[in-house]
């Protein structure tokens, strides 16, 4: 294996993956406002953590660098779903944010109707990309099933519903953990597990444990990053519920557990998944 580190992997793959995303959306979506609104948020500065995690798992399972583009449709689908979720999350009837990643949110740029439709378009197109991918039928079916399960009303959409309906009361620690698991962790877990399925890796409890710990750590880090800002004040977050120090402890423990889990993984190059944990430092 030539690439030993997640950061290096990310830098190596990103330009090619970004070009793939842009070319594909630009050629497939003919309605100009819809195409512009979809491309606006896809190109608004996202870090591409989820698709790069998926591709890094594929690579760690032994797929060669030159064959990784065979998996771009599935990795792209995950990024489209992530992007749709952020557009809808920013809407006035949801989190009501005017800015995302320092740029105008989609509805502020295009209007609420177009933003809803840009999200709808990204969500639907994700499953079109998976269905049209050149991977074996069994892999495409697994990707559709896992993604729909974790991103839809059994996962992320359910988490979002809990979030917007329980906003005005403080959740218990167990409720908050479940909300974070559904809203954020489930899509991260998908990125890892779909990667393993697509690369013919026998999905083990260790890799699933790693995925679950990393997924939750992602939201706990986000909570810590936002802690103390004006918008964060009344929100259901770990630091608001259990305090900053206890939340930092929780993050450290999640990262330690993720490391221990992935180190036990068999028939798998561990360098990229271990170095990904630096994201939480
Ligand atoms: C609208 C169905 C629906 C779901 C929305 C993802 C989500 C659910 C809401 C976003 C709220 C939020 C900011 C959660 C924190 C964790 C998170 C998803 C952060 C953003 O992910 P990054 O850092 O984003 O990977 P970039 O900007 O890099 O793409």
Map the helices and strands.
Elements: H1 6-28, H2 32-42, H3 49-60, H4 72-90, E1 99-100, E2 103-104, H5 106-110, H6 112-132, H7 137-151, H8 156-165, H9 173-198, H10 205-226, H11 238-242, H12 244-263, H13 271-276
Antiparallel strand pairs: 1-2
Helix pairs in contact: 1-2, 2-6, 3-4, 3-9, 4-6, 4-9, 7-9, 8-9, 9-10, 10-12
Describe this structure in words.
The longest helix has 26 residues, at 173-198. The protein has helices at 6-28, 32-42, 49-60, 72-90, 106-110, 112-132, 137-151, 156-165, 173-198, 205-226, 238-242, 244-263, 271-276, and strands at 99-100, 103-104. It is built from 13 helices and 2 strands. It has one domain (6-280): Farnesyl Diphosphate Synthase. It has 281 residues and is mostly helical. It is 69% helix and 1% strand. Helix 2 packs across helix 6. It has a two-stranded antiparallel ribbon. Geranylgeranyl diphosphate (GRG) binds at residues 46-47, 49, 85-86, 88-89, 101, 156-157, 160, 183-184, 219, 222.
Summarize this, please?
With 281 residues, the chain is mostly helical.
Number of discrete helical segments = 13
Determine the structural class based on helices, strands and strand pairing.
mainly alpha
**CATH architecture field:** Orthogonal Bundle
Total strand segments: 2
């Amino acid at each position: 294996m030539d690439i030993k580190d997640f950061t290096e992997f990310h830098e190596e793959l990103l330009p090619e993956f970004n070009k793939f995303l842009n070319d594909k959306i630009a050629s497939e979506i003919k309605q100009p406002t819809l195409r512009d609104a979809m491309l606006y948020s896809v190109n608004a500065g996202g870090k591409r953590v989820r698709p790069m995690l998926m591709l890094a798992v594929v690579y760690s399972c032994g797929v060669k660098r030159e064959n990784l583009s065979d998996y771009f449709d599935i990795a792209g689908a995950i990024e489209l779903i992530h992007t749709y979720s952020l557009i809808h999350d920013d809407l006035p009837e949801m989190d009501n944010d005017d800015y995302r990643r320092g740029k105008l949110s989609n509805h502020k740029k295009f209007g609420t109707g177009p933003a809803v439709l840009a999200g709808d378009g990204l969500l639907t197109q994700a499953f079109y990309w998976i269905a049209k991918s050149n991977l074996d039928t069994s892999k495409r079916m697994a990707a559709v099933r896992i993604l729909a399960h974790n991103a839809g009303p059994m996962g992320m959409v359910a988490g979002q519903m809990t979030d917007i309906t329980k906003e005005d009361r403080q959740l218990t620690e167990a409720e908050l953990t479940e909300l974070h698991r559904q809203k954020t962790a489930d899509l991260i877990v998908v990125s890892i597990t779909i990667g393993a399925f697509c690369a013919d890796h026998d999905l083990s409890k260790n890799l699933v444990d790693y995925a679950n710990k990393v997924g939750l750590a992602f939201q706990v880090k986000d909570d810590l990053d936002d802690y103390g800002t004006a918008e964060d004040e009344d929100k259901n977050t770990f630091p608001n519920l259990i305090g900053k120090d206890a939340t930092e402890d929780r993050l450290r423990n999640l990262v330690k557990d993720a490391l221990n889990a992935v180190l036990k993984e068999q028939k798998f190059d561990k360098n990229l998944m271990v170095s990904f944990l630096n994201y939480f430092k």
